[in-house]
């Protein structure tokens, strides 16, 4: 792996070592508390090549409920899915398709990776990072700011990626603010999705969960296995998943408007809810759920010419609801 420079500045905040000495920052707005893992090529909690290294959230607590936690047993920082929180993956299909084996390929939030002999990008593989760029991290009591700068003459790609993980001052909201500037010679075409690994109080995926969207759903290539089904604007669980089970389906029915980027996940047993909204229209949605996590995966896309930039915001609003009575 190429050399990486990380600059971390603590501004009226606190950076601490997490489990296994993974670098992290704790943030709060009084109502919400969260632990954010920090990017580090040697000691970071996540060092694989699928997800953006910025903004991996280890835990988030609101009114006695915890929304994010590790969703699988064991932890290997080089594992593509050994991650937690509303992590994001940037897909650059055109860059990958146009590259030859051995070429450098853009992977935003990671840097520049090398394309091996295999022609198709496979998210479950961890590729060689040939140019991770430079990371700068700045913390405050209620937010963490990340900046990654990458320039790669071999591929012609370059970018400055700025992401702020912020807790609102006047509401129980987690806000993800992004700016992606194209500093290279080639246009950037990317789709990005939040995987949203919700692990709410370690409750198993099942009928206590409700996953509701802002429009009537049309399932595409469903693989729900009789465990869940699509009902109107909801994905409903019919029973609790077993440890080795998972369900998945792509979803359609949305319009080209940010209003349809509106998803609610609630658990009636523990009385926890979250609503996800954004200022960009959807281009696709995948829903995936093992026993240990509930994962609506909304995708958006950008075309960014050299010298131009894209900005977007995603908001998570946390709330409580009446508990389901258990006799």
Spell out the key features of this protein:
327 residues; mainly beta; 6-stranded antiparallel sheet; 48% strand; 11-stranded mixed sheet; single chain; 1 helix
3D structure, described in words:
This protein is an all-beta fold and 327 residues long. The chain has a domain at 5-194. The protein contains one helix and 25 strands. A hairpin with a 5-residue loop joins strand 2 and strand 3. It starts with a strand and ends in a 7-residue tail after the last strand.
Class from secondary-structure proportions: mainly beta
Instruction: Tell me what portion of residues adopts beta-strand conformation.
Output: over 45%
Q: What level of helicity do the residues show? A: under 10%
Identify low-pLDDT runs.
Answer: 1-18
Q: Count all strands and give the number.
A: 25
Rounded to an integer in angstroms, the radius of gyration calculated over CA atoms is 19 Å
The first-to-last residue Cα distance is 57 Å
Please describe the topology of this protein.
Blueprint: E1 5-10, E2 15-17, E3 23-28, E4 32-37, E5 56-62, E6 65-66, E7 88-91, H1 93-98, E8 104-107, E9 111-114, E10 129-131, E11 134-140, E12 143-152, E13 157-167, E14 173-182, E15 188-194, E16 209-212, E17 218-223, E18 228-231, E19 234-237, E20 246-252, E21 262-267, E22 272-278, E23 284-290, E24 295-304, E25 309-320
Parallel strand pairs: 1-11
Antiparallel strand pairs: 2-3, 3-4, 4-5, 5-6, 7-15, 8-9, 9-10, 11-12, 12-13, 13-14, 14-25, 15-24, 16-19, 16-21, 17-20, 18-19, 20-23, 21-22, 22-25, 23-24
